[in-house]
Design brief:
Order of helices and strands: EHEHEHEHHHEHH
Number of strands: 5
Helix content: 25-40%
Radius of gyration: 19 Å
Shape: elongated
Oligomer: single chain
Strand content: 5-15%
Strand order of the largest sheet: 1-2-3-4-5
Mean pLDDT: 89
Largest sheet: 5 strands, parallel
Structural class: alpha/beta
Number of helices: 8
């Protein structure tokens, strides 16, 4: 999977790109056309076997529209921070309507103490049995919501443990209770919604 990491923004414009649409020193510079030009390059890589899938990260609906209006390949995924404490329903619904999968980064909120110490998450972790805990519940929540999950760890034991989420399920009434956690709006990574993106 090859991703465009962000849509382009005012604070990190490239001054050295050979693409005139992506070089802010060029009079042809345009964030919208830069996104389209970059996507064409990704399509070339995909069509020539250089990637099994291509997608985007931290894109909002207006950024995706730049790609979709090209009437070419649709991004396989849009990767955003997504967990039961942070649900950006508008972009989730938009991507679903366009058959773009949502990929959740920071699905366990980087082990934030609000997640680690949440009584209900720990209660469900205990109910799930074995050595499962709050993190397993957060990962399983993402899976049951239909999201691709990307838990990150450099510790082999944790990498294996993160995969122990397929032999139990969160019940429907428990999923509804977990929905209440999104009121926290806990964000543990940078916020693409507050970045002044190029238009």
């Amino acid at each position: 999977l090859l991703l465009i990491h962000w849509p382009s923004d005012n604070t990190s414009r490239s001054h050295s790109s050979t693409d005139p649409y992506c070089n802010s020193n060029n009079t042809l510079y345009s964030a919208s056309k830069c996104r389209q030009s970059t996507w064409k390059a990704y399509e070339y890589i995909f069509n020539n076997g250089g990637a099994k899938a291509i997608g985007v990260s931290n894109y909002e609906s207006n950024h995706l529209q730049d790609i979709l209006e090209m009437n070419s390949l649709i991004p396989s995924v849009n990767q955003i921070e997504l967990h039961c404490f942070l649900v950006e329903q508008e972009i989730i619904d938009y991507c679903k309507s366009k058959n773009i999968m949502m990929e959740a980064y920071c699905p366990i909120a980087r082990g934030n103490e609000k997640a680690r110490n949440n009584e209900y998450l720990n209660q469900l972790g205990g109910k799930a049995g074995g050595k499962r805990n709050w993190a397993h519940i957060m990962i399983r929540w993402c899976i049951q919501k239909g999201f691709i999950v990307l838990p990150k760890s450099v510790t082999p034991e944790r990498i294996l443990a993160n995969g122990d989420v397929f032999e139990f399920a969160i019940e429907e009434h428990e999923m509804k209770t977990l929905e209440e956690l999104q009121k926290e709006k806990l964000r543990v990574s940078w916020n693409p919604l507050t970045v002044v993106w190029d238009v």
